[in-house]
Amino acid sequence: xxxxxFGMLSKKTVTLDGNILSIKGVITNxxxxxxxxxxxxxIVTPSLSRNGTVYFSTxxxxxxxxxxxxxxxxxxxxxxKEVQSLIKEAGIKAIYSDSQ
Length: 100
Known about the structure:
Blueprint: E1 2-6, E2 12-17, E3 20-25, E4 31-34, E5 40-44, E6 52-57, E7 72-75, H1 80-90, E8 94-97
Parallel strand pairs: 5-8
Antiparallel strand pairs: 1-2, 2-3, 3-4, 5-6, 6-7
């Protein structure tokens, strides 16, 4: 089992345990996603003025606001390598962009 923490004030814990990716926020319920059901991870890279986002899509479509969805989370510029590590370890296809 691998555990990551992303974000600043409203941290989300992302756990990878076998084929299950779990996301749990401070004020949000835990969601379990089977990695086989995740078509793609949409990743917006952070800049100097804003945090990045990750959205795990189970239908192949992106979401306009990954911050408020249960399948996504925010991360800081310093956490980019951890995001890349999570994506690589899970074997999920990733699409990167520079804008939200």
